[in-house]
Amino acid sequence: MKQELKELKRKIEIYKPYNEQEEKDKIVMINYIDHFDNILTRENEFAHFTASSWVVNKQRTKVLMIYHNIYNSWTWTGGHADGESNLLETAVRELKEETGVKNVKVLSSEIFSLENICVNGHIKRGKYISSHIHLNLTYLLQVDEEESLKIKDDENSGVRWISIEDINKFCTEIWMVEKIYPKLNQKLNNY
Q1: Residue 22 sits in a domain of what CATH number?
Q2: Among 68, 97, 117, 138, which residue is least crowded by beta carbons within 10 Å?
Q3: What's the angle, vertex CA 145, arms to CA 87 and CA 169, rounded to 5?
């Protein structure tokens, strides 16, 4: 196994799951690392690693979200590892690219959450992408609400702060609204 995968596997192994979903998804992630060398790239068309951010304001009352063009929903920021094994760096990079923020405070360098996310087949940049799984690690980040925001036209058509209580009014992805975002907010309350 490549060194970068060994380090990623170690971080996932020491992560303490918050609930049954995380327990099961953690097992799957470790299994995929053990069986695939290309799990950090989109070359693995069935499952590959991604990183997301739960980006809160200083008061931890709002989350910074984007309107994702493919999902047609308000969603967290994040993206593909694309060969990078330091998924915290991936999460920060994607946050900056997708929202235009420049100053990001990492509230913890540890994994905040993990989840396997089903992605339906879709068209991206004129090419069909088959349905697949994102082996996703989430990190807790903070950004100043006064920071200037901008849209990344090829990925999103909106960037805004959303009150934690109002997320389900904006997000249309059922799995995220029912299971993932509430879990992140519960964990935030315990942080």
Answers
A1: 3.90.79.10
A2: 97
A3: 80
CA distance 164 to 56: 9
Nearest residue to 50 via CA among 8, 90, 107: 90
Is the separation of the CB atoms in 149 and 160 below 8 Å?
yes
Continuous H helices in the chain: 3-14, 20-35, 87-99, 167-170, 174-175, 181-190
3-state helix, strand, coil in the chain (%, to 5): 35, 30, 35
Check: pTM over 0.85? Answer yes or no: yes
Ramachandran category for residue 37: left, alpha or beta (phi over 0 → left; psi -120 to 50 → alpha):
alpha
- Structural domain for 111, as ranges: 3-190
Cβ pair 98, 156 in contact under 8 A: yes
Q: What is the pLDDT of residues 152-181, one digit of tens each?
A: 998 899 999 999 999 999 999 999 999 999
Give the tens place of pLDDT for each residue, 49-108.
999 999 999 999 999 999 998 888 999 999 999 999 999 999 999 999 999 999 999 999
Q: How far, in Å, are 40, 84, 87, 131 from residue 44 at the CA level?
A: 8, 14, 17, 12
Give residue 36's Cα distance to chain centre: 21
